[in-house]
Amino acid sequence: MPHIEPTFAPGRILLFNLLGTLMVWSWLSPSVLFWTELDDTVFFTTNAWLAEGNEAWVLFVAALNNRVFDVASLLVLLAIYLWAMSRDPQRQERLLRWAGIGFTMLLSAVLIAQGVRMAVPYTHPSPTVVYENVNLVTQRVDFATKDSSGSSFPGAQGINLFLFSAFMWRFAGRRVALVSALFAVLLSAPRILSGAHWFSDIFFAALAINLIVAPWILLTPLGPGLAQAITGGLIRAKRALSGR
After folding, report:
1. Model pTM?
2. Are 219 and 8 in contact (CB under 8 A)?
3. pLDDT in tens, 144-166
């Protein structure tokens, strides 16, 4: 199981950055239409499933894009986080240690979101906005749901889900990381199924951003060192409050 101690792994950083860069090249290259064709194929296939006669599926997709499901998604991530913490063999100050990891993850998510906002000026609307005469779940149900966005690129939810998986891989080990990666895919799927996101908003943009940025947080002393510093501060605060 990985530990919280800071490490520096330039080889793995280079590998992940290279994969992310290749993904960016495949998306930017005018001679490569892979992502455009894949986006259209996924959208028109899944949108056809929302046609009349598939009321149960429409209701299911609409429910998955309701705010209640967003809360359920957070609970799933919390359950994985608690599972990871329970597997930590170092019992002493385990709660505070994982609080430090959690705060570091939240701070990383905020910094990445701000960095993407400044470094990635490009965006585009969701496929349900681009194409006309498509099936919209908002017109088929009588409760709040989401099937469109004026700015769907990159998928912010996907960025955070993949970042969570990266943190679990670094601090919790392979088994927890694989489960968190599986749920990252499952929890990001509803926006694609409703047409609020293109496939590439999540599985190109969000993934490529994490491949390029997350290694510099997790495979250098930056992330683990910050987690250690926060944990140390929490331990000192606990001792001060308890008078020890």
Report:
1. 0.93
2. yes
3. 999 999 999 998 999 999 999 99
